[in-house]
Structures are given as C-alpha cells and as structure tokens.
Amino acid sequence: MSNCIFCDIIEGKIPAEKIFEDDDVLAFKDVNSQAPYHFLVIPKLHIPTLNDSDNAELIGKISITASLIAKQEGFSEDGYRLVMNTNKDGGQIVFHIHLHCLAGRQLGWPPG
Ligand code: 5GP
Ligand code: ZN
C-alpha cells in the first residue's frame, strides 16, 4: 500500500527496531515510547482500521503475538496493556491496524 508508513516498515523502506516477524505479522518498538516497554504489533496485510476487517484469525493473531512477546521479554506476569486506537475519537494517527503493547510500569486508568 502506498502512502502507508507501516507498509513501508514492513517492506524495509523505513527502519524500525523489529522484535518479531513471521509471514503474517510484524512487531516493532514504538518510536515515541510511552512506557518502559512499548511496541506495536501489525498485520502484514494493509487494513486501515478495525472497522475494515472481519479476519478474526489475523486480528486474534496480533493479540497472541503480543502475549508471546510479553512472556519472552519477562513482563507477562507483572502485566501489560493492549490498545487498538480506532479513528478520530480513538486517537488513531496511523491508518494501518496496530496493537499497542505497553508495560513496565503501573499504567493509569482511565486513559485521558
Ligand atoms: P496511533 O495513535 O495511530 O494508535 O499510534 C501510532 C503509533 O505509531 C504512535 O504511537 C507513534 O509513535 C508510532 N509511530 C508513528 N510513526 C512511526 C514510525 O515511523 N516508526 C515507529 N517505530 N513508530 C511509529
Ligand atoms: Zn499499510
């Protein structure tokens, strides 16, 4: 997909600190980290928002990928937060579905 920063990361046109990759998904560190651990898990398929997909397998896989990374990195028991911002009121800036994983400190609730 042209004009998509995350497709550019998938294609290697823009560098990113990759954490995990397979045929379906990519996980990489968020460039503007909001917590000691803050990474994004994205499908390699360009899907603009959660409203645009009924692909339960792929949408589920990004959650499972985040949990596997949490276990691998050793913060799964302390805990973490998964967030998928959708459209304007959700604060979505990049229109390629991505799951934020935040961890490593006590996270506030509710979000602002
Ligand atoms: P959104 O508000 O759309 O849910 O969040 C987009 C996230 O993508 C933000 O947290 C932002 O810091 C991150 N981001 C935007 N551009 C880049 C980039 O080029 N590289 C990386 N690693 N993260 C990015
Ligand atoms: Zn894309």
Features:
single chain; about 110 residues; HIT family, subunit A; five-stranded antiparallel β-sheet; about 20% strand; globular; binds guanosine-5'-monophosphate
- CATH architecture type: 2-Layer Sandwich
**N→C terminal distance:** 32 Å
Residues in helices, as a percent range: 25-40%
Write down the Rg: 14 Å
User: Would you identify the regions where 5 or more consecutive residues have pLDDT less than 50?
Assistant: none
Label the overall shape.
globular
Largest sheet strand order:
1-2-3-5-4
Query: Which small-molecule ligands are present, each listed once?
Result: guanosine-5'-monophosphate, zinc ion
Quickly name the level 1 CATH class: Alpha Beta
